[in-house]
């Protein structure tokens, strides 16, 4: 349970830090097409992890 709470809290922060760091670094070293691909892949992965770790209210 503790790991789940950490993941819920840390996922937005990790994505908000990793995304703006990774895309310019890839753009500088590999060019614009790979930077766009990196942005799409990171965005999709970040979104999927956020959905999987979301805490939804129970419907009792």
Your description of this structure?
- The chain is 83% helix and 0% strand.
- The chain has 60 residues and is mainly alpha-helical.
- Helix 1 runs antiparallel to helix 2.
- The chain is elongated and about 45 Å long.
- The two termini are 20 Å apart.
Notable features of this structure?
60 residues; mainly alpha; 2 helices
A few lines on this structure:
The protein is mainly alpha-helical.
Strand count, sense and barrel status of the largest sheet are:
none
> What integer is the average pLDDT?
88
Give the uncertain stretches in residue-range form.
none
How far the N terminus sits from the C terminus, by CA atoms, comes to: 20 Å
Number of helices: 2
Shape category: elongated
- Going by helix content, strand content and strand pairing, the class is mainly alpha
Outline the secondary-structure elements.
Elements lengths: L1 H29 L1 H21 L8
Helix pairs in contact: 1-2
